[in-house]
Amino acid sequence: KEPAATIVETLKDITLCEGEDAVFECKVSRETNQDAQWFLGDVPLQSNEMNEIRVQGTRHTLILRKVTLEDCGPISFKVGQHTSAA
User: Fold this and answer.
1) Which DSSP string corresponds to the chain?
2) DSSP string covering 23-37, please?
3) Contact at 8 Å (CB) between 47 and 39?
């Protein structure tokens, strides 16, 4: 059984203007098959035309495209029992 990954680089708060892309990055301690999930408020996010979720090694990136005021809110990243929020 693989050891649990922990978050080693947390999310940072950002401020944008409407229409800009929001980019959030989190780094975990190791590459893992554990489920990693992004949330806007309590809503789990999926990769689609408005959101892009990338994993490059231990770096997890969320891009929210052309944000609006409705996108304002807490973003969180969860892996295993660990959470980071911005």
Assistant:
1) -PPPP-EEE--------TTSPEEEEEEESS---S-EEEEETTEEP--SSSEEEEEETTEEEEEE-S--GGG-S-EEEEETTEEEE-
2) EEEEEESS---S-EE
3) no
What is the tens place of the pLDDT at every residue in 29-79? Answer: 998 877 899 999 999 999 999 999 999 999 999 999 999 998 889 999 999
Q: What is the pTM of this model?
A: 0.91
Contact in structure between 13 and 73 (CB atoms under 8 Å): no
Residue carrying the six token digits 């969320």: 62
Question: 10 Å Cβ neighbour count for 11?
Answer: 20
Q: How far apart are CA 43 and CA 31, in angstroms?
A: 25
Structural domains in the chain, CATH included, are 7-81 (2.60.40.10)
